[in-house]
Amino acid sequence: MALFRIGPPQRNSGPQWRRFLATASQFTPPTNPYKVFDRNVKQIQKDRTVRGDAGERSRVVDYVRDEVADRMLERFLDIKRNFGTMLDLGAGPGHFSKLLEKDKVQKSILIDSSLGLLHRDPDSEFEVDIERIHGDEENLMTFIPPESQEAVVSCLNLHWVNDLPGALVQIRQALKPDGLFLGAMFGGDTLFELRTSLQLAEVEREGGISPHVSPMTGKNVHSTHGMRLTKFTLLDTRDVSNLLGRAGFTLLTVDIDEVKVAYPSMWELMEDIQNMGESNAIIGRRNVIQRDTLVAASAIYNGDYVYYAVTWFGLTQVLEMHGNEDGTVPATFQIIYMQIGWKPAPSQPKPLERGSGKVNLKEVL
């Protein structure tokens, strides 16, 4: 677990001078259960992070992706095999591929739906050969030949994919037999502190809640505000294991980790989320959060509020929020590592048939 203290030293807390951009949803939510996110809006948000300042704002907030890329590399190096070519899916400027060495991988193909992020750092040095492809991660097989890759990696990108089972199937199709898939995505408890603070503030100030923080999966329902949007289920390791199995991967290993970051206040956190390109892109989302609600959410986040419930035993404290003793607020990024998934091949080890054992465990134990 890593703890970061980040941000410029002279940042002022408070909402008065900040403007958090919301990109309007442009169509009615469809009935297809996989259409959870507005992919066009997500691409706009990612492109916006590198516009106007040559990508400097985007580089400042690379700390989460760089940390997760380092942890992914540790897992990658544990695999005692060298690779000729691999895909870096949703690579952005190449957080993971920048760490690779020639004796492990000969060539890495960087793929991202954001042309701006893909070419954000044109002068970066890579030890491996690099090819950049501008393409949609949801439609991998439209530009990658089947069974052409020895490995596919994805560092913090798949949480914005609508059809995650379909995307995993395409990854398996792109792999050669006995090819490797290694991925990391945000889990359902990511930014739970921000999510709960916004929900409590909305209930208090507006009498209902709407989703503002991803990643999630879901289906279309009506919100408490009467808007048609999406009911969400948080992803966990069991869900990811089931999805990998359904996609046809074998010898699975899935684990979970956290990166905790300390921010001066909720406002700096929201600013960094926007500069990461991780703003809300849920179909049917509310486009505006009232200023009064945001101020209340910040106070809740800081721990200025304590919530109580009336029970049979009297008044009971049920929730005290998240502020640290030093005045900062924590933000948790939960990472689910699809640590190893292999495309089936005849050479892979397989379990023996049931009843084929020749030694009774009672005799051994």
TrEMBL record:
Gene3D superfamilies: Vaccinia Virus protein VP39. One of its GO terms (biological process) is mitochondrial respiratory chain complex I assembly. CDD domains: AdoMet_MTases. InterPro entries: Malonyl-ACP_OMT (IPR050602), SAM-dependent_MTases_sf (IPR029063). GO terms for molecular function: methyltransferase activity. SUPFAM superfamilies: S-adenosyl-L-methionine-dependent methyltransferases. It comes from the Eukaryota. Keywords: Methyltransferase, Transferase. GO terms for cellular component: mitochondrion. This is Methyltransferase type 11 domain-containing protein. It comes from Panaeolus cyanescens.
